[in-house]
Amino acid sequence: MKRRMGTADQLGLELAVAHGARRIAGVDEAGRGPLAGPVVVAAVVLGPGRTPVNGLADSKQLCANRREALYARIIDKAVAWHVVRVEVEEIDRINIYQATMLGMRLAVEGVRHAAELARIDGNALPRGLPCPAEAWIGGDARDRAIMAASILAKVTRDRAMVALHQQFPQYGFAEHKGYSTPAHLAALATHGPCPHHRRSFAPVRAALGEAAGAPVAVEAFGEPALLSG
Question: Does residue 31 sit in helix, strand or coil?
Answer without folding.
Answer: coil
